[in-house]
Amino acid sequence: MCIRDRLSEETYRGVLASLSDVFEHVVLFRTAPNDSILLASASPVSVPWETFAARARESGVRDSLLEIDVTSPLELPFFLQIGDKTVRKIVDQTDARNTDDNVWLEYRLPTELFRQWNIRFDKVPEWIARTGADSRLQSISAALPGIPPDQAVRHLIRYPNSREPVDVPGRISSDPWQRTRAILAGGLIRELRTTGQEELAARAEGWEREEDARRQAAVELTRRLQQAVRSGAVPGAGELERALEAAPGHPMATMLLAMSLAETDRARAVELLQGLVNRPFSPLSYDAMLQFGRLAEIDGKTDAARAWYHRAIAQNQYRVGAYMAVMVLEMRGGNHKAAETAGKAGLRFNPTSEELLRGTARATEPQGQQ
Q1: Running DSSP on this structure, what letter comes out for residue 4?
Q2: Does the model's pTM come out above 0.85?
Q3: Which of 41, 60, 78, 154 has the highest CB neighbour number within 10 Å of its CB?
Q4: Per-residue CA distances from 240 to 254, 273, 288 (Å)
């Protein structure tokens, strides 16, 4: 069951209570800043860690997880935020129930959705984080028996700091765990101390400081690079290499370096671009595909260029760059019908794009008038 957070805490408790009346074991996962998935079962929700990790490493599963920026099985436990024991404590705090003969939720939801701007609704992410923070490692260990505690803690600290600091139009935030990161880390460290794991708690505090510094450095690098691009003063290859030494894998620095090296060191540029393509969650994965298409055009490989552009479109239909690249490519080759088709396909997802509107109109003009 999936829940969006445009609910009050009271309604959220009622949903959990109604589900818990039917299923003895309910576990809450946070898959995005405002989304919860409730996994309910008559038996404990538990899978041996080795079995779970092996399944996550299967090629199809691994590729699917990359699309949501999960690169290791050890990153998945981060999303488990409240175990079934804590859910039962929440349930004990409310009498609200939604049943076949008491459609409490159906009557309540329209009012809450209408009043969704109310600030108290915006506190749900923090409330969920605080509720499960001090028993989270215990919940994870119960759900995934055999998971190495030190590795689990390391990734619980690292993952919410790992999102790349690139601002993308249309996205709510490039730092989705900003509001709950400190709450979760603080609860984890308290839990370790409460359970007598002082040494691991001290290491967790050190990891938290390291990750916070790394994240802030990456954010600052992004700010500087964006400012440089806007001003037309893009750093040279040497400066970008040094930037990547300070912030390894930084996506924007990687892209700019690849573009800088495209003519002088094609092999290195391709290596850098492929690294971005292999991170499909990254918004710059799309840009890397466009760059591969442009390189293919330079090499006279029209079919390869077209394939890269269509691959970018398949990844994100709501950005217009790849549609425009296909239109230009087809019009250069005299295939105005294919250019028109690409433009119309783009307009289905981007109906107000002036670029696509102009390009499509040009593709439909009689050739003698262009």
Answers
A1: E
A2: no
A3: 78
A4: 8, 15, 17
